[in-house]
Amino acid sequence: MQLATHLVPREIQAVESVELTFDQRERSRLRVALASGEEIGIQLKVGTMLSHGDKLALDDGRIVEVIAADESLHEVRAANVTQLARIAYHVGNRHVPLQVQDDHLLMLPDHVLRAMVEGLGGRVTEVRRGFQPESGAYGHSHVHHSHDDEGHGGRIHDGLSPRNQDR
Hints:
Elements: E1 2-8, E2 16-20, H1 22-25, E3 29-33, E4 39-43, E5 55-58, E6 63-68, E7 70-77, H2 81-92, E8 98-100, E9 105-107, H3 111-119, E10 123-130, E11 142-144, E12 155-157
Parallel strand pairs: 1-4, 2-6
Antiparallel strand pairs: 1-5, 3-4, 5-6, 7-9, 7-10, 8-9, 11-12
């Protein structure tokens, strides 16, 4: 089985592609099937997150383009840009992955966040699209996506140690 162990510049022409969900793109080690059906392993430096359009080099020299796979998302729209900005602020305060577009937001499905968005006047629609949320403000945030027993989705943190609560 071929391994992809590093990224190459995006300008390099790819000869293969692989569709990965957001959850898969945040993992540094996994086995996947290329569009051609061939199975490969991805073994990247721990903490590496792949983005739509990234290029991986296989052991044999082939280049594979990473494609954000369609997945279930909540599309959030608002009556105006101010309302959308307010919703983005409140969703961002929950430290969940969020993709910001010109006229809407995309987020992973979460019934608690949906209720909050609707309470702020937003309209939520279930869609299937590739998901490429914002990275952290300093470019190194990491997301842990899982659903707890109450249906809450992904949480973003910046990899820093927790503050000492005794200070």
